[in-house]
Design a protein that fits this description.
By secondary structure, this protein is an all-beta fold. Helices cover about 0% and strands about 30% of the residues. Bound molecules: zinc ion (ZN).
Length: about 70
Amino acid sequence: MSVAFQPAMYYEVTARDDNPDCVNYEQTFTVPEFYSNDGVHCYVQCGRCGQHMEILTAALLDPQPEVS
Ligand SMILES: [Zn+2]
């Protein structure tokens, strides 16, 4: 499943590690403030194996967090 992002917005996303060699394999992580950049290059990188996780869900934050 692929998730569509609008550019330059903050989302809460969940992502799953799909690397069978990783200790995080098949674990799901929540990123409470995920920035979408240009809306295309949206990646959640695993802190253990360094690979990109599969993004499962993305919920647009409403309101958007304050950026100072
Ligand atoms: Zn991993």
